[in-house]
Amino acid sequence: MPASTSRSPSPRNAEERCPSCPPNSKLLRKEDWVECEACKTWFHWRCAGNGEDMNRISKWFCKSCIEQDTSRTITLKPPARKSTRKRNVQDYANLDAGLGSDSKRFLRMMEGKSILPHPFKLMNGADVNLSWLEEDDTAMLEPIIIEKPDGLGMKMPPSDFTADDVASELGEHTPLEVMDVASQADSPGWTLGKWADYVELEPSKRERIFNVISLEVSGTKIAEGITPPKIVRDLDWVETFWPSTRKGKGNVYPKVQLYCLMGVETAWTDWHIDFAGSSVYYHILSGSKVFYFIRPTPENLAAYEKWSGSELQNHTWLGDMADAVYKVELTAGNTMIIPAGWIHAVYTPMDTMVFGGNFLHSYNIATQIRVRNIEIATQVPKKFRFPMFSRLCWYVGDKYLRDFRSHPDFSERIIQGILALTDFLVAEVRILESGSEQAKKEVKEQIPADRVKDAPALARELRWRARLASGYSSDGEEAQSTKPAGLKRKRSDSEAPMVSSLFKNFRPKKWDACAQETESSESRRVQPPGMKAEEESQEDWTKGWLLHTGPEEAGEDSGVELKSRKELYVKVRKTEKGVERQQIVRTVETWNWDE
Description:
With 595 residues, the chain is α+β, with helices and mostly antiparallel strands. It has 17 helices and 23 strands. A hairpin with a 4-residue loop joins strand 22 (560-574) and strand 23 (579-592).
């Protein structure tokens, strides 16, 4: 048998070249070889063949041997006996999934649809920071595009980094999850070496279109050359809340921060939301991408939930079920941040290398939990959900409770996010208290015993403190707001109040820093200015206490014990001409009657 297929043990080894290899040609990891019947020399079939199917060759002679003896003729194997009955060619793998084998059906489905130019902000990297989050009402609620990486505090591999480099760094035999674009399902049997060979093929020679969207590289040599944008590192729950002693080599933690995405020409990723509604940073190293976005409104999310995982997915353009679809085109060097819950599809017009990552944060917790519930409702397998989501939420809740106890100054957006988080944690606690044994076991396994000693107490105290900070009553499981209808919550000292003004939504500049200290404390016996609360009616007893008079001293055997302390609050902020400082002295008194 003159033909054989072999995998080259070292594609950089000069001995693996054949006599017909063009000068400076790049060797592939997998080569088909053919042997000349006359000179017994082995050749690459792609170098010496004529494009025929090599498996049909019976006897083969190289060009030199045919020139030496023209009687030598390449012969083919006799064809297998075939029925004359016409048969339909079926793609059984895709038929099992109820799908066709056409990778371009998505583009045809999109033809003639109403797609709007995007309304999203183009920003400079230096402007994407924590101040932007506090001052811009749309921050982390709409996608933003940063055309140049300058100022983002981000590090990426060189722009000529390729799939071949990925295989060299991580190992050619490393298994790789690859998606078949036609079916949007996994294609088994891939390694990084096989993928690198596939990418090196000319687009016209790729029989099927595949896509790589789930190669996480944390802890690898590639990761040493990547740093996510600073805003991502500042917000990322895994970065800021997961204990540092439980991250890194040898520890199990959510590894979703560093993905290498490799798409080839005409690849398509159908409509989806990133797991648990996580936000995404997305940097085009080389090539280009086209995004199609749908806002995560309640109506659009309901439509997505209905569409996802149903027969509608195979023949319905989700955009027809939504209020609008927006188009964003990204090219090499562009970076985009996609906020929580945005529904999107992605087209790859040319071979493209992308680095990006997912992160949960505190500025839209409600949407993150809403998307997680959609994943559960649509039975998304656990392997495709955000890893260790519940455990991460407990770490976040534990840290916010400690922060509330020491300095409960949070912005309105953070407080509303914490309230959404407490709803989730209390729901987990209720399962722990009254769920099935299996459900209890699953919840308990996700509670980090190294930090959370009493999960029910943590969840309910955090909810109580968040409700008080937001102006709610603290009583009962279904506490209601104590604010009159139509009135906003009184903001904390760290926030600037709304000002009645001719300018709609105008807010003064917030305080840049606040400090608090106790100046003095003492205990003495004095005559009370009013009566004990229980001795007279609710209306009468308060009158004396509201008078601003100093207490009269009393003897050891008379009066009541007065404990008092003076607290000093200092707030500062920049002004156009200098600095504004406010100093507030507060006296806190506790009056105790002897029993």
